[in-house]
Design goal:
With about 525 residues, this protein is an alpha/beta fold. It folds into 3 domains: about 230 residues, FAD/NAD(P)-binding domain (3-Layer(bba) Sandwich); about 110 residues, Succinate dehydrogenase/fumarate reductase flavoprotein, catalytic domain (Flavocytochrome C3, Chain A, domain 1), CATH 3.90.700; about 70 residues, Methane Monooxygenase Hydroxylase, Chain G, domain 1. It has 13 helices and 19 strands. Strands 1, 2, 8, 9, 10, 11 and 18 form a 7-stranded mixed β-sheet that branches. It has a 4-stranded antiparallel β-sheet with strand order 13-16-15-14, with helices on one face.
Length: about 525
């Protein structure tokens, strides 16, 4: 049994922001990450940047862009918080405290980029490795605190809750609450109960349940699955945003071509060099992501092509290699010189606009459980996310959640540790067979891509639900008898999240934002 004040599960910018604020308040913080390196996260791979406010900008303009992109179903309270508090927190935490070296036009002037659906240049960036720089800086800062403990290579299996995990039958008369998590040590393959006065889910999104994704392989929605099983409210899971431009190359592994490439003038073309975005939206390449994605999908389908191209070289008025050094170097490794050649691209699952429903301070519907970042649904994104608002939302809500925890903190725990069930190990533990795990994941990802992906129909979604339900029963049977292993845990999370997305899509017959459904 292990104990702490605040347990943070996940360590992208959302979890790191929460951990930093809690640590500065003097609370004991434990950070659990299933990766060997705490830097590994969706944040690490974020290229474009983070929203602030440009010199000719104001909160009202940002709000307008957020509402338009979110198709009007955004949570007004959350949008207000982001637009009114975001710049201040970027200035105070990222610029003043962490000294993030955002690009500058001059020593006294920051450089602001523009991305699709933004009416102003307001994106702060560190060339095209913004997320990597922010993430590494946060980790260095957190390591300087003696009251912060990192548990790397540890996978959260399930949330610990009362009354579900209590041996005391009278606990059913009380309010359900989260008291920590069961955590698997990936090296020893042993599960331990990790108790905490407050638990924060910051596990990122679920792009990796789809066949094509810009997310790292571990982005399978662990937090959604655990929160759902614990009884927390989950909403808007049908709104899966697909990024229009993932590098198309047989040897490239989920490499994103940032939206800022289009912001700097790049144009989309068919394989034979024909411009096409003007046929879909007056904003052309700067239309919202969902519209650009569907346009690419339609062009690929109509021409029986497996990719389109993104031409930056013919249109950019910048030093391409200097502005996009990481994209330039990566594409060169695959024989593509973006200063001269168009880039072959395809759409890919990118961001989940739904998640664990939270309030203005990251509190979920389950007492003592918080959620921040892509794991949470503040409602700020509505039906579709405005580019580069996700890092800002994670910073704002991570900070706000920890501040509220510190302000209201008390360590009165209405249970004794001996009243909580230890992890149950089946007597005859079945060995993990990698071939079975890989095949199950292949089935999940292909099903989600083909039936619950960019363009959905009721028949496709019904097929997805039937296939996934069959697979879920098989996986759960295997899970109950298998030796504990992070791949087995991940598979259990993944099938649960695939079902959540599919069921949400089936329950919403209205095409809106990132959920596009046709047919009746």
């Amino acid at each position: 049994m292990t104990d702490t004040d605040v347990l943070v599960i996940g360590c992208g910018i959302a979890g790191a922001s929460a951990a930093l604020e809690a640590a500065k308040s003097g609370l004991r913080v434990a950070i659990v990450t299933k990766y060997e390196k705490p830097e590994e996260s969706n944040t690490f791979y974020a290229q474009g940047g983070i929203v602030s406010l440009g010199p000719d900008d104001c909160p009202e303009l940002l709000k307008k862009d957020i509402f338009e992109t979110g198709d009007g179903i955004n949570n007004p309270v959350a949008v207000d918080i982001l637009a009114e508090e975001g710049k201040r927190l970027v200035d105070e935490i990222l610029i003043d405290e962490l000294k993030i070296p955002f690009e500058r036009r001059s020593p006294d002037e920051l450089d602001y980029a523009q991305e699709a659906a933004h009416s102003r240049r307001r994106i702060l960036h560190v060339k095209d490795t913004t997320g990597e720089t922010i993430e590494e800086t946060f980790i260095r800062k957190l390591r300087s605190f003696s009251n912060v403990t990192f548990l790397v290579d540890h996978a959260a299996v399930d949330l610990l809750t009362i009354p579900h995990h209590s041996k005391n039958p009278t606990s059913f008369y009380g309010t359900p609450r989260c008291i920590g998590a069961y955590v698997l040590d990936n090296k020893t393959q042993k599960v331990k109960a990790f108790f905490a006065a407050r638990t924060i889910l910051a596990t990122g999104g679920c792009g990796a349940i789809f066949l094509y994704t810009s997310n790292p392989a571990g982005a399978i929605g662990d937090g959604y699955a655990m929160a759902y099983r614990a009884g927390a409210r989950i909403i808007n899971m049908e709104y899966i945003q697909f990024h229009p431009t993932l590098l198309f190359h047989r040897d490239a592994d989920a490499f994103l071509i940032s939206e800022t490439v289009r912001g700097e003038g790049a144009r989309l073309k068919t394989k034979d060099g024909r411009l096409f975005m003007q046929n879909y939206n007056a904003k052309k390449e700067m239309a919202p992501r969902d519209e650009v994605t569907r346009a690419i999908y339609e062009e690929m389908t109509n021409s029986s092509s497996n990719y389109v191209t993104l031409d930056l070289a013919s249109y950019a008025e910048i030093d391409i290699a200097k502005r996009f050094p990481n994209i330039h170097a990566t594409c060169l490794r695959y024989g593509i010189d973006i200063t001269r050649d168009p880039i072959p691209v395809v759409p890919a699952a990118h961001y989940c606009c739904g998640g664990v429903l939270v309030d203005s301070y990251g509190r979920t519907s389950l007492k003592d459980l918080f959620a921040v970042g892509e794991t949470a649904c503040t409602g700020e994104h509505g039906a579709n996310r405005l580019a580069s608002t996700s890092l800002l939302e994670a910073l704002v809500w991570g900070t706000r959640a920890a501040q509220r925890i510190a302000q209201e903190f008390d360590d009165q725990r209405p249970y004794a540790s001996e009243e909580i069930h230890e992890w149950y190990y089946p007597g005859d533990e079945e060995e993990m067979d990698p071939a079975l795990i890989n095949q199950d994941w292949s089935a999940i990802r292909n099903t989600m891509w083909n039936y619950a992906g960019i363009i959905r129909t009721p028949k496709r979604l019904e097929r997805a639900r039937a296939d996934l339900n069959y697979l879920r029963h098989r996986i759960e049977k295997f899970y109950r008898s298998a030796r504990m292993d992070p791949k087995v845990v991940g598979l259990k999370h993944g099938i649960q999240v695939a079902m959540l997305v599919t069921q949400a899509a089936l329950g919403n017959p209205v095409s809106r934002g990132a959920h596009y459904i046709k047919g009746g």
